[in-house]
Design brief:
The chain is α/β, with parallel strands linked by helices. The chain has 4 helices and 7 strands, in the order βββαβαβαββα.
Length: 143
C-alpha cells in the first residue's frame, strides 16, 4: 500500500504487515506513524481491514471550527501512541461517499476500527483525557 508521510508528504510503498514494525519514511527518515495520516477512501478501507494496529479515525472538514481546535489534541495522541495505534484523518468534504456510507452525521467524529470492524465511535471534539480513554479502550478492545 502507499502511505503518505505526515511530515514531508512523500509517498512510501509499504507492506501492511510492516505497520507494526515502526516504519520510517524513505525520504525524511521520520516515523510514519508519529503523526496522523491524511487518507482517502481507498487507503482508509485498506487500513481498517488489514492493519495489525487499531485504527483511530478522525472525520473532519476544513470549515469546521471544533475540528480545527481538536487537531492538535489528535496530533499529540498520534505522537504518544506511535506504533501502538494508527491515527488517520478523513476529510469528509473530499470523501463524501465514505462519510455517507459510514453515517457520519456530525464532525468531528472519532471512530476506532480493528480487523475490519468498527469498535466504537463518538462525536464532538474530545479533551485530551477523554481522547486518551477512547484510544486506550480501542487498543484494549482490539487485542
Amino acid at each position: 500500500m502507499k502511505i503518505p508521510c505526515p511530515h514531508c508528504h512523500k509517498t512510501n510503498q509499504l507492506a501492511i504487515e510492516r505497520l507494526a514494525s515502526q516504519p520510517i519514511c524513505g525520504a525524511c527518515k521520520k516515523d510514519l506513524l508519529s503523526a496522523p495520516l491524511e487518507v482517502d477512501e481507498q487507503l482508509f478501507e485498506e487500513l481498517t481491514a488489514q492493519s495489525p494496529l487499531p485504527v483511530i479515525a478522525d472525520f473532519w472538514a476544513s470549515w469546521c471550527g471544533p475540528c480545527k481546535m481538536f487537531a492538535p489534541t489528535f496530533q499529540a495522541s498520534a505522537l504518544k501512541h506511535t506504533n501502538e495505534a494508527l491515527h488517520v484523518k478523513i476529510n469528509t468534504e473530499d470523501n463524501q461517499a465514505l462519510s455517507q456510507r459510514l453515517s457520519i452525521r456530525s464532525i468531528p467524529t472519532l471512530a476506532a476500527y480493528s480487523k475490519g470492524k468498527e469498535l466504537t465511535r463518538v462525536s464532538g471534539a474530545l479533551p485530551a483525557p477523554s481522547l486518551e480513554q477512547f484510544v486506550q479502550k480501542a487498543m484494549q478492545d482490539a487485542s
